Amino acid sequence: MNQRSFLGGLLVASLFMFNSCATGETHEHAAEINMDSVKAQIMALEAAYGVAENANDVDGVAAYYAADAESLADNEPTRVGMDAIKAGIKKDMEADTSGNTISFATTGVWAAGNYATETGTSTVTNKEGKVVKTGKYMTLFELRDGKYIAIRDMWNSDAPPA
């Protein structure tokens, strides 16, 4: 093959690749995602988290997370891995002796491929039913063995600094 033919072939191949990238065409098709199903699964995870949190069930809350998850808790370093996550959950539960309860409300869910992201709000209510604290959170889930599990999450309070 002479140099001119080689360069011509390279140019044609480059233009083909550029055209495919520019138009967003791919040769693989992503699986169709049923967003109603994804949202329902994630909302069920949040509900179970709330039940476990209100029952001071460390293992129940930890079931929300993958073993290799990272949790970016408010006002502390990142909790990396299940041992650190469980220790943080236990510390949080032991620090709260007020008898308050927490609930979560999903405000958005987005999914692509094997990942889903959720945003939401949290509301802490005292024994009399009065809201004592609100906050927000964001969680990244990964689909593993057919179920979503939290691999990254972060949250913080809406309260101004003390």
For this entry, give a set of tags:
162 residues, alpha+beta, six-stranded mixed sheet
Provide an overview of this structure.
With 162 residues, the protein is an alpha+beta fold. Helices cover 38% and strands 36% of the residues. It contains four helices and six strands. The chain has helices spanning 3-23, 35-54, 58-62, 81-95, and strands at residues 65-72, 79-80, 101-112, 115-125, 131-144, 147-157. It has a six-stranded mixed beta sheet, with helices on one face. A hairpin with a 6-residue loop joins strand 1 and strand 2.
Show the helix and strand layout.
Elements: H1 3-23, H2 35-54, H3 58-62, E1 65-72, E2 79-80, H4 81-95, E3 101-112, E4 115-125, E5 131-144, E6 147-157
Identify the quaternary structure here. single chain
Spatial strand order of the main sheet: 2-1-6-5-4-3
Structural class by helix and strand composition: alpha+beta
Helix and strand sequence: HHHEEHEEEE
Instruction: Name the average pLDDT.
Output: 84
Strand content: 35-45%
Task: Give the termini distance in whole angstroms.
Answer: 75 Å
Quick rundown:
With 162 residues, this protein is of the alpha+beta class.
